[in-house]
């Protein structure tokens, strides 16, 4: 990027300035040329006031009273957050920890297993044909069935199989298994797309240098593949993090189920608002980080292309 | 009381929907209701005098959602003994019969009663309702009464003892003997409150976070008995607890199921009149004798 105009602090200007000197145009809002001057700031101030004002107006209107009482009651949100054992209300905050550690644990397993599935699907050897078939059948199935159905199947079906310790696990274990099962399929497809996006010439070059096909995969293809799909992987992670809420179908007191319990006791939905806030506290920074990684990666690649 | 915990028992209900479990036991619905846990139960209902049924018949048709039609909501699926064959409109089952009798007293013929589906979680949504009242084994509590309006009782719930067949409590349960046992229960339940307030055991009850944990403790002889809602207890003793038996029930302390109305719905006063008449003339008693035998036949113990 040497010799270019000062960098946009948001990590923009990934498109090299054209010869006419116009600012670069990007699809991403944070990289659009900024409106400058009084006209610009007035316009943004007015539109902000209008939008925020409209939201405040709707929520504070008399007719929204039941909504405010039912969903935005601060006292109820607090009760849901910390719980009230004397009424049998379990803490949404405590439940949310389960969402967090479960998603982290599952993500690690998913990243490892999905890479295996993706590489298996891309193998060519005749011996591996049945395994390739299985891998394809698995991804088709796991991606084609709603996670909640798999959750119900495994969560209620496995305990009824009477398979000793396999059938007597905590619902959290089944839920973790289902999340890993479903997300491995998605993520393996992301990996596969990434691997296929690496030009064939790279492989040919590596092989002609004498690298084995395994080393080529590990040292040449995968590093580029993963870099290409990093935003998609982070995206799936955010999605996995949210989908831990499906564990509630198995009666595990994670954040959503805890909010449901509080709702049933108090006849008030503010616990759901509390749970939403907790999820946003995690997913929004994660999304921003994904954006940041995307921008950084684009900058890097363009930099390497121009030097 | 409606879903509050979903223990393994409650998991049955969705499993039934999936076709993974073989049978829909009569208790599945009861089980989904989990345990009740308001320590302080008060009659959060309007008090007499109720308007006369004659005057109600002229006013109610104007107060219903759809003029001349009484719209009644319940969940889907619903279970015996509250409904029969998952068909609220067949008039069978305790709650279906109560709904039709209330309607008839208010001047609505059977054809003018319309059933709609409302899940428990949706029944207390703020704002206008899609029904005149909801009948769904909802326990009346002061907390809940802040969000909705309840009718007077159409079913008084009682607490009952569940133990293992081999336990001493099955045969020895005079008030004095009941004090000697070690009880277990879920935190925050009315069952636990009942143990503390009425049984006064010599050893403090063991308190568990979930009902399944308490059941586990009973099963493994860590406690002598648990105290739960009679409908829950009936299901536990018949299906969930191996070798379980419902030893007996205690006189009601006023905890009850009520019909659920939108907050401030004026229709409630006429429905209360109807329920009051049904209590007085023995309609509720005979319906409960007909449909709730499994609960009413359990011997009543003196605490």
Task: Give a written overview of the molecule.
The complex is a heterodimer of chains A (307) and B (303). Chain A has 307 residues and is mainly α. Chain A has a single domain, classed as MetI-like fold (Orthogonal Bundle). Helix content of chain A is 69%, strand content 0%. Chain A contains eleven helices and no strands. In chain A, helix 3 crosses helix 10 (255-266), helix 6 runs antiparallel to helix 7 and helix 8 (200-208) packs antiparallel against helix 9. Mean pLDDT of chain A is 85; it is low at 1-19. Chain B has 303 residues and is an alpha/beta fold. In chain B, 34% of the residues lie in helices and 17% in strands. Chain B has twelve helices and ten strands. Chain B has helices at 8-18, 28-32, 53-63, 94-105, 120-123, 175-178, 190-199, 211-219, 230-240, 267-280, 283-291, 293-296, and strands at 70-74, 113-117, 133-134, 148-156, 159-164, 183-186, 206-208, 225-229, 244-249, 256-262. In chain B, the strands form three sheets. Chain B has a five-stranded mixed β-sheet with strand order 7-6-8-5-9. The two termini of chain B are 22 Å apart. The model of chain B is unreliable at 1-43 (pLDDT under 50). At the A-B interface, helix 2, helix 6 and helix 10 of A face helix 1 of B.
